Amino acid sequence: SSSKPSSSSLQLSFSWPIDEAHRTLGIHITPNLKPKQEYELLHQKCQQTLLLLHMNQLPPDAAYTAYQQHLMPAFLYPLIAQRLPTQAINKLQSPIIIQLLHCLNLSSTMSRRIIHLPPQYGGAGIPNWAITTCARQVELL
Fold it and tell me: What torsion do the CA atoms of 122, 73, 77, 91 make, to the nearest 10 degrees?
């Protein structure tokens, strides 16, 4: 005779504290829907990124490619699912922009408007994370 477990013996138990964030698809979601823990993780990732950019002196074209293809998506993906204020997103991006500008041999005191302006208009062409995040959130509606 085959012994099948009864449905009452197949109880799944998911036990994580109710007030802790749950990480799913690379994004922390808290029960109260406040993005504080995700922001803290992004801030830590920002510090690690700054250290990597500082220690690995890439040529300007390689630094810009690394920023566009790796760093920016790594930050934008979790930002799209959160409701961080523009000021918090700018606070995350600002130190990375300063380090990137050094890698690109550009002045770190350059106006933010020029930094985010497309190259064909005389800017550095570095996307603004807050605007990009907002635009992608609107696309999801």
Answer: -50
Residue range 85-113, pLDDT digits in tens? 999 999 999 999 999 999 999 998 989 89
Distance from C-alpha of 48 to C-alpha of 127, rounded to nearest angstrom: 20
> How far, in Å, CA of 63 to CA of 113, rounded?
21
Residues 42-87: pLDDT tens digits?
Answer: 898 899 989 988 888 889 999 999 999 999 998 898 888 788 899 9
Instruction: Determine contact, residues 10/22, Cβ cutoff 8 Å.
Output: no
Q: How far is CA 20 from CA 16, 36, 47, in A?
A: 7, 11, 23
Q: What are the φ and ψ backbone dihedral angles of 114, each rounded to 5 degrees?
A: -75, -35
Can you tell me which residue has the tokens 């990137």?
100
Q: Are 48 and 75 in contact (CB under 8 A)?
A: no
> pTM, whole model, 2 decimals?
0.74
